[in-house]
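Consider the following assembly input.
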Amino acid sequence: MAAEIAHKLAALAIAPTATLTHAETTSPATWKDTLIASGSAPASFELIKTLIYKPKTAKTATTIPVVVIAREETETNSGAIGKALNLKELRLASDDLLKEFFALDKNSLSPLSLTESTFSKVVTVVDPSIASSSAVFAIHANSSSETIFLSGKDIESYLKKLETPETKLQELGTAVTATAAPAAAPAAAPKEDAKIEGAVQIAIGVKKEVDFPTWYTNVLLKAEMIDYYTVSGCYILKPWSYGIWEEIQSWFNSEIKELGVQNSYFPMFVSASVLEREKDHIEGFSPEVAWVTRAGTTDLEEAIAIRPTSETVMYPYYAKWIRSHRDLPLKLNQWNSVVRWEFKNPQPFLRTREFLWQEGHTAHLTKNEADVEVRQILELYRRVYEDLLAVPVIPGVKSEKEKFAGGLYTTTIEGFIPTSGRGIQAATSHCLGQNFSRPEMFNIFVEDPNDHSKSYVWQNSWGLSTRAIGVMVMVHGDNQGLVLPPRVATVQVVVVPCGVTSKLTDEQRAAISDTCEDLAKRLKKVGVRARADLREGYTPGYKFNDWEQKGVPLRLEIGPIDLKKQSTLAVRRDNGAKAPIALASLETDVPALLETIQSDMYARAKATYDSRIVAVTDWKHFVPALDSKNIVVIPWCEEEACEDDIKERSGRASEPQDERAPSAGAKSLCIPFDQARWAPIEPGKTKCTACGKDAKQWTLFGRSY
Amino acid sequence: MAAEIAHKLAALAIAPTATLTHAETTSPATWKDTLIASGSAPASFELIKTLIYKPKTAKTATTIPVVVIAREETETNSGAIGKALNLKELRLASDDLLKEFFALDKNSLSPLSLTESTFSKVVTVVDPSIASSSAVFAIHANSSSETIFLSGKDIESYLKKLETPETKLQELGTAVTATAAPAAAPAAAPKEDAKIEGAVQIAIGVKKEVDFPTWYTNVLLKAEMIDYYTVSGCYILKPWSYGIWEEIQSWFNSEIKELGVQNSYFPMFVSASVLEREKDHIEGFSPEVAWVTRAGTTDLEEAIAIRPTSETVMYPYYAKWIRSHRDLPLKLNQWNSVVRWEFKNPQPFLRTREFLWQEGHTAHLTKNEADVEVRQILELYRRVYEDLLAVPVIPGVKSEKEKFAGGLYTTTIEGFIPTSGRGIQAATSHCLGQNFSRPEMFNIFVEDPNDHSKSYVWQNSWGLSTRAIGVMVMVHGDNQGLVLPPRVATVQVVVVPCGVTSKLTDEQRAAISDTCEDLAKRLKKVGVRARADLREGYTPGYKFNDWEQKGVPLRLEIGPIDLKKQSTLAVRRDNGAKAPIALASLETDVPALLETIQSDMYARAKATYDSRIVAVTDWKHFVPALDSKNIVVIPWCEEEACEDDIKERSGRASEPQDERAPSAGAKSLCIPFDQARWAPIEPGKTKCTACGKDAKQWTLFGRSY
């Protein structure tokens, strides 16, 4: 793309999804065809039109053109626009005018044609559905033969940056446009959704049930959990999400330290020869390994990998450090980031090229000890999800096909996303057996204290990543935004002053503010993370929406009447329930209410999960159950060929594929430990639902992330 | 090197310092000359000799050759060796024997010629000074024309790994060798140093005052703070050091949160175009930037850098997020690792290619606000060093030459390493001014609420790294090992059972053990990190030394007499002082004693630092003061040319250079805030010690890390 454009985008940390050079185009239709024909455009994209209108003005007056930026399919009625802007007789501008203002013809115009110098000389009207859309938009790069693809958010960022106090962007609203494109509709929420009197509507933009992927990214952006980053597949964890991670870290750290695990830090680099030691293991990771080949201007002699996981980083040292049974068990953990350069469509928290996690690596004298620990850790993971994040999970064992590359067996907790009807692997605790310790591998052994024979150690590795945060958002969030479980919320309670009208005296205003601050202070003293929102210049309604969008579990309102009654109105984020709390009993009632919110959130999610697990003993119900957004549990033979077959048969049948939910075929999720939930499997009698061979155990299958 | 050797070393995670192919050699002298002449050998290295002896045996008996591995200069007396091993008439083995056992001639032999299959058929005797040495050793790679360079530790690892219960390595001790090389001498510590009755001497190997760099790495290895890693310049932070970092994190986190700083996480990757935005800034870092150019087998279109620091990663988003004065101040921090691919000699904690730190980045409306915060943070850094690590520092401002690349001014706390007489930059808090916010850079501005003009934000960045741990080790460690200040020690108190002789009844033994456990439990209840060392099979002396080496601040001894007296003997690690503590007053006396140890450690280090700052007003005393391991403070003109000149003049003059302490010329360390320590500078009258121009302020100069 043109250097000038590249420079502008870089200044805003905007990275195009793609850039294309192609044949010159003259109309939107040929443009779109050309892009698709090139084979290099994103799988789906929309066009943006940039129209320049000239209002009728006195001959001596300066012409102020109107720039309209809209989705191609949005109808732009010049009469309605002119009326809304109070400008007469808008007409599409002549080529001369375009040349004069932008030095471009109409087929090369794009939002990027606006610059700091031209912006203040025109009126700019933008279709608001662009910014709220998850679509990728094609725009010209100052020529009709070069196209770049940008997100709506980035286009908005670019334009917003041009604003000055005197010249602001205008919205192409219902007043301005005759008919908005269907996709633009949710931007203006129906009246009945605006529950709160006086509220400024800060919509998530699209409904969770209608466009789940867009809802998800919008919630994350609007709740200030993440921001997109110039390097594709990487995201910024803003304090609002990182704080959740800190809560998880703090709880998990104290639990594993009780088990004798110690924290440490191993380097992020690993040499090729060490990385490639375990063949099965590296096969699982090598397509995604990022390689450093240069430092400064010096090419490295041997390329060095960035760890995708640390088994091969750590185990050579386990071999060195473990000399006798006295050195066992060795239990180390680290909190770090790992890199897996996925080429699939990335999604914040769920699939990212760099992500944060903890990885525990332990070595034991006996298999039994290792087995016990695998389950202890899995139980801690279950508690992170269920007790902290209020997200129900099902613990079980992975099938041979789905187990950790190079390990002996993998235990897992499996979550469920009701909106998409897909399972999601929440965290895994692996027993590696002696696969990494055997002599031809890392050769980690001790001498048996009795007979002096070599005992190769039994190893486990286990990991929990920031994916947990994404699952929590998907499970609990609603159309008002994020819903945070109290135990992990950075702010658990927000105190908002209300009813501060012009009738109040200064003393009355001060009394309300002071009470808000006082409540927050009292709550903090009893360990509640509370904050008073005393921001000036925002209405209570704006604040309500702001904190709702950010998912704060409980809002306390304080107005003149509350003060008189010595009470505060408590509003729950999870279900909107309102109830007064006497100020005198604040220190007991608020913590109790937070606990109730926490357990209610879990109970609701659990009921939903339970209701969406369908036991299937006849194959004909299998795919329909999936298509109705369930996961299924079947008596299963546990054979890999059967698993492949299930994937194939359930993928072929079904619903249209969503590119961001890549697996349309069902995978085995886990063999649940709790088999007693379903009718007993009768050996030799109960048959596998999929292939009719003898079934071994009930196994969960589902489409998954 | 030969694939076989490469494989063996890789299996042990051993990375040679260098590998050389050269002309065939036949004697140690020609070998050494050839290596030096090649120009590719390490700057200093030692040779190892591998000698094979054959004892006289009955003709029918199996020959068991003796393999002696020693430093070239160690005298190996075959008579003494034979006597020690109880073998008759050792003779150097014939070529035939060498061929038979090793398929090699004597000029190709090396420690690596031993394999699992040959090791059990020979007797192997090793010079113990190899493992304890910091030298790099040249050894053959199964041919007389190929040499690899390994550390002594790695050679030991290799040999240890060959041991079996039946066949152990033997030490070439004073009994075996007539005269050991001088460097080997400290391995056997003089009798008077063995203070503790019954102690197993675990020496640090070399004295702190004699060979400081070797002492430093030995302490770190023996105290289990770090291990060396296969990727050069990277180190493993073992729990014993990582725990100190966790203490620092926990304290610093709570302090910055009080200041309104929030934690977050930004990606480790940064694109070339963004990284290179600020020219001065990138000039300071670009020679050390590591570049990812490949993912899996796919070459990336544009190389992506690993952050050397995050200014350019974060500030494009500051531009995006900061829209109005309500968004200020923005205060973010992250705990992460950064990569600076230094080509100089690495040193654990002090100069490593990847290191852990925190980096804070804040944006403010006014310069004054930024100035205030710069000093608040510097004060926290001072407290991390002085209050937690008991390491005195001097706060001040960096000269223009030494300030942060691209910033406005840099404040610093400067530490001092008495043993080397060098200054060390401990932590820095930078005011970046508006250098990164101005329009042609990251364009970070808000509109002034009053006159709507653009105000470019004032920014700070500040960082503290794991270097702090290295400084603490250097300042407090002694010839027994590490000395940890109580506030950061993972284990503050160890309780060791003593006097458990064969005369005691089982009940008496149990009473001692139980009391030890009970003391640890009682101490933990009052917040003391205590541990009872009830390991079986180790003498009290061994345990004493073990914990002393690891630097545990306080040891409590419990024996039969202590039990009777209901008292415990408390032994301080910092000064060896012993005093009984009544068990009844444990909960008050131990915490008080730990505080005393903490403040005594600080006071001693402070007195030393103070005594080694020499005020110099006459240039002729400048270099002699440095040569006597001091730093100097001079009235200084603050001109860069003068600073360059001081470096040049003080470097030329002085002591022989140590490769691991690269700066022989003095740099300015800081202009201390506390100018009142020295006689007032009289404007126009007091002259610069170095150049004679008008002096501005007292400034610290020193050789430094």
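Chain A has 20 helices and 31 strands. Ask yourself how this observation constrains the way the partners meet.
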